[in-house]
Specification:
Layout (H helix, E strand, L loop, with lengths): L2 H8 L4 E5 L5 H10 L8 E5 L4 H18 L2 E2 L3 H6 L6
Parallel strand pairs: 1-2, 2-3
């Protein structure tokens, strides 16, 4: 059994996937098929974005997908609060 499967089985967990386009979703579904013990409500999808406008555009289709699958949407709060800048 691989290390990730052992960790998922042994510990309470959440999984966060950064999503850029709908083409990313099949890879997430494949991962979750390989790891069937992951509870859907512990899966978070976050848009790949460096500005609020891009994040808002992606939010629309990602939140709909989350509703369909039972996942959770996770916004990039650092982009909202600080914009596209590295920490100091």
């Amino acid at each position: 059994m691989d290390v990730l499967a052992r960790l998922l089985n042994k510990f309470n967990h959440q999984l966060k996937f950064v999503v850029d386009t709908p083409d990313d979703l099949p890879e997430i579904e494949t991962f979750l098929t390989v790891h069937p013990n992951v509870v859907q409500s512990r899966v978070f999808l976050m848009p790949q974005a460096t500005d609020e406008k891009t994040m808002d555009t992606k939010r629309k289709w990602i939140t709909e997908y989350c509703r369909e699958k039972g996942y959770r949407y996770c916004p990039r709060m650092q982009v909202i609060w600080y914009g596209n800048q590295r920490g100091k």
